[in-house]
Amino acid sequence: MTFLCGVARLNVRNSVRISANQEELVTEPLLLHHLKRNKLKVVAIDGDLSVVHQDSVQFDSELPEFRTQGGVHIHADKLTVTSPVLMWVKALDLLLDKMKRASFTFSQVIALSGSGQQHGSVFWKKGAAQTLAQLDPGQHLSQQLQDSFSVQDSPVWMDSSSSQQCQDLQKAAGGAMRLAEITGSRAYERFTGNQISKLQQIRADLFQQTERISLVSSFAASLFLGGYAAIDYSDGSGMNLLDIQAKSWSQICLEATAPNLDQLLGAPLPSASVLGPVSSYFVHRYGFSESCRVVAFTGDNPASLAGMRLHQGDVAVSLGTSDTVFLWLQEPQPALEGHIFCNPVELQAYMALLCFKNGSLTRERIRNQCAAGSWEDFSDALRETPIGNNRNIGFYFDTMEITPPAVGVHRFDPNDCEVSGWSPKVEVRALVEGQFLSRRLHAERLGYSIIPGTRVLATGGASANKQILQVLSDVFDAPVYTIDLSNSACLGSAYRALHGLVAETGVSFLDVVKKAPEPQLVCTPNPAAQQVYDQMLKRFPQLEERVLQKTYA
Ligand code: ADP
């Protein structure tokens, strides 16, 4: 038995930084951390969850005619960032042809699902539904879908050109906080609703020709389905349009965005929904079984959560260039920072994402200044200083931070008085403790709580450092495990395909994936840590407030 995950994972973390808009500059790296989104990838697993096939198509090098860099076009205004939609279609043609040449047995695939970069959108032209339903198996998809899009260049997650629409939406919703309460996030330029609103205002002609709007995920599912696929709740939460509690489009947001939008979007569905059988095009061209099911596709971040097999109480911390925190939430508390999405694997639950811009680069700076540029010396400093750092607390925001939006280095002594410096070893511990206290505080503000059985799953470059992970374990008072995230969105999609087949019978996602490889236990919390950090967490928010006041003074 084989499961296919047809995944549209697009665009990149490349070296481009969008720099024109202060607000977006602060928020933009949110999704950068582990997503190398410049390719389309496939992973097939068998009934034991073992990977039996993988392949990929790199946009820039294998589809050079589209002239993308990192899968995208950055326009002259530096704010508008798009990807050619036909490039994505052609990448799927190429990928399936590669699999055929590798004698992949399509006939054994019993279900498929996938993920796409969050926020990107596809505008289908009037008549496209008919084309999708009557695809000729003798031709490639890209030949037949050339005239199916009213917008050739799809807005993608790196776009930050819709500031005005963000302001308008927040105003219509009753403010940024109210919008966050409804949709899980305040208004963000890249979020799809604001992109739709912009298109409707500046290219009303193209908007008029549009019969359906998909996310990248539901667009890819539509190709397999031979008809328009529903947007799933989880990826739909990245649009500033979905009421994440009611799980339906928010009327206020729809009306503030564009006319007739509910018709153009179609009704959203639970992420584990079976959308239908694969279209006859794939049966006849590649030999898929007629009974192969297409399970709703979702966003790459939700798919990663599935790939990591996060469950209640867990937190995943990616320690890369910037640090990102993924949370499993039961009772979300939307805020002006971070993003809350419907959970892709459990209907009643939620997930959240938080991004911290000052991660590894700041740790490297302190390593260079205080530990002779050596991670070993840096680790020794952590080993040789006490838990709680004798009540010294530091904030290290070398560049304008996202969470919280503050800047500068601020050191507080045990009496909460600001001081100008510490010994190198104290500085090293203050940095790492300060970073992890902040990760915990902001996670808890979104509704996260540590429970018995909580695990911290660590990934990214700094997860190679056991002493750093020991501090993480102590601050969260939970064991830390390491995981490899490189394939998590793809694997998560394959797991979701499998779960989709049985979800209606009440079988849980975790039951379906229990045979998957376990993460590695690296450290357990020091028994003395809980009391020390509980005390520090009482002081930390007040000190952070002072840092914020200084930033905006
Ligand atoms: P990216 O966000 O670019 O994918 P990675 O997850 O690969 O980043 O992490 C790279 C970072 O990992 C480097 O900037 C480096 O500071 C950090 N790193 C690598 N090894 C160690 C170590 N032993 N201890 C702490 N940090 C480390």
- Give the spatial strand order of the biggest sheet: 18-19-17-16-23-24-25
Task: Compute the number of strand runs.
Answer: 25
Distance between the termini: 62 Å
Mean pLDDT, to the nearest integer, reads 91
**What is the H level of CATH, i.e. the homologous superfamily of the largest domain?**
ATPase, nucleotide binding domain
Major sheet size, sense and barrel closure: 7 strands, mixed
Q: Percent range for helical residues? A: 25-40%
**Second rung of CATH, namely the architecture of the largest domain:** 2-Layer Sandwich
Helical stretch count? Answer: 22
Low-confidence stretches: 1-36
Shape: globular
**Strand proportion:** 15-25%
Protein name: Xylulose kinase
EC number: 2.7.1.17
Enzyme class: transferase
Organism: Ataeniobius toweri
Keywords, separated by commas or semicolons:
553 residues; alpha+beta; Nucleotidyltransferase, domain 5; 2 domains; 7-stranded mixed sheet; 6-stranded mixed sheet; binds adenosine-5'-diphosphate; nucleotide-binding; FGGY_N; D-XK_euk; ATPase_NBD
Could you characterize the architecture of this molecule?
- The protein has 22 helices and 25 strands.
- It is an alpha+beta fold and 553 residues long.
- It has a seven-stranded mixed beta sheet with strand order 18-19-17-16-23-24-25, with helices on both faces. A six-stranded mixed beta sheet has the order 3-2-1-6-14-13, sandwiched between helices.
- Residues 156-307 form the Carbohydrate kinase FGGY N-terminal domain.
- Phosphorylates D-xylulose to produce D-xylulose 5-phosphate, a molecule that may play an important role in the regulation of glucose metabolism and lipogenesis.
